[in-house]
Specification:
This protein is an alpha/beta fold and 240 residues long. It has two domains: 2-71, 60s Ribosomal Protein L30, Chain: A (2-Layer Sandwich); 79-238, SPOUT methyltransferase, trefoil knot domain (Alpha/beta knot, 3-Layer(aba) Sandwich), CATH 3.40.1280.10. Helix content is 35%, strand content 20%. The protein contains nine helices and eleven strands. The strands form two sheets. The chain has a seven-stranded parallel beta sheet, sandwiched between helices. Helix 5 (103-115) links the parallel strand 5 (93-97) and strand 6 (120-124).
Amino acid sequence: MYIYGRNPVIEALKAGKNIAKVFIRFGTHGGGVQQVKRLARDAGVPVTQMDKQKFDRLGNTKDAQGIVALVEEFTPLSLDELIAYTREQDPPFFLAVDSVTDPRNLGAILRSAECAGVHGVVLPQRDSSPITDTVVKTSAGAASHLRIARVGNLHQALEQMKDAGIWVAGLDADGDTDMLALDGFRPICLVVGSEGKGLRPVIRKSCEMLVRIPMWGKVDSLNASVAAALVLYEVRRKRM
């Protein structure tokens, strides 16, 4: 898989991803380029400079800012590995994503999740965007730092999380609990659904609580990535 753009490549290098090679287009300069070269040198990753014609053959280089990295395919964790991860003095804090198929939406959600300090993300294997170069680019490299589990059945995964003592709360416009009343201190997995359709019925039934975001304007909904960001940060705010 290729990663395109200065920040995504920098974050992948910082995260210690298995990068085979970094490609830089001739004539590309700036502090970001020097940082990529330094990080690549420290990690023992070869850097190759290419003319524009060869560089453009690497794929979707329109927004690459003159830098592309060839990395190993994304390798997810198991759900058990994800649940086992904890942070001292920070109760388990996870995000599950239901049926978000647009890679840009998924990338934006992952960016918010990483910035909010979630311990890991659960993605279904079907009806969900894979971790592509577009996801990594849109996440501004955040996908490289997150622990991500792929599961065959999201409903069963949520049930396993509940068995492990993790509270499952879904985001729903008709939820019975206001976001501002959410208990942010207990172990929690927030679940965000797809654009338009929201959570699937079977996933909604798995949730122990449905959380709504208060609205004061005439528009009565937010896109999935914005909704996820708001509730993720409300949990993090209450833990500060």
